């Protein structure tokens, strides 16, 4: 069976950046299962998997526009340290949930000054070209429940 919309696909993958650093991997764990065509994974990877079959291996390079998007400067802002009252230690790299015009979303501390903290609401992989090494493990028809939910159940 080939990967098509409304199929449940399981893949093993290793994600690296353009410097060759491993960013994430399913190797040694359960494969990633997703519903193809339901936007469960980034578009660049989903597009490359269309038509593949069990046992196929491929390397996919995904441009930011088909990955996690370009860095949006409006998602980076300085906030007054007083917004973190009750938090004793704040370090670069820490993540918090913030209420934004787009709803609640994670933000990452990227800089700390005496009276202000710079937060980045972009996805951590935004602006990066991503390289996936993928092996297709299983492909099957989605159940009615999975189609209704829009994800693997």
From TrEMBL:
Its EC number is 5.2.1.8. GO terms for molecular function: peptidyl-prolyl cis-trans isomerase activity. One of its GO terms (biological process) is protein refolding. The keyword Cytoplasm applies. GO terms for cellular component: cytoplasm. Residues 6-70 form the PPIase FKBP-type domain. It is found in: Cytoplasm. Keywords: Chaperone, Cytoplasm, Isomerase, Rotamase. It comes from the Bacteria. It catalyses: [protein]-peptidylproline (omega=180) = [protein]-peptidylproline (omega=0). Pfam families: FKBP_C. Belongs to the FKBP-type PPIase family. Also involved in hydrogenase metallocenter assembly, probably by participating in the nickel insertion step. This function in hydrogenase biosynthesis requires chaperone activity and the presence of the metal-binding domain, but not PPIase activity. This is Peptidyl-prolyl cis-trans isomerase.
């Amino acid at each position: 069976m080939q990967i098509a919309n409304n199929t449940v696909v399981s893949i093993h993958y290793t994600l690296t950046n353009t410097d060759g650093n491993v960013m994430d991997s399913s190797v040694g764990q359960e494969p990633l299962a997703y519903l193809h065509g339901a936007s469960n994974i980034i578009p660049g990877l989903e597009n490359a998997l269309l038509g593949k079959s069990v046992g196929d291996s491929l390397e996919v390079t995904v441009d930011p526009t088909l990955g996690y998007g370009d860095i949006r400067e409006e998602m980076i802002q300085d906030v007054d340290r007083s917004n973190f009252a009750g938090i004793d230690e704040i370090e670069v790299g820490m993540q918090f949930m913030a209420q934004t015009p787009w709803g609640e979303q994670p933000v990452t501390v990227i800089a700390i000054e005496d009276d202000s903290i710079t937060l980045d609401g972009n996805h951590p992989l935004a602006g990066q070209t991503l390289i996936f090494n993928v092996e297709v493990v299983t492909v099957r028809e989605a159940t009615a429940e999975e189609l209704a939910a829009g994800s693997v159940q």
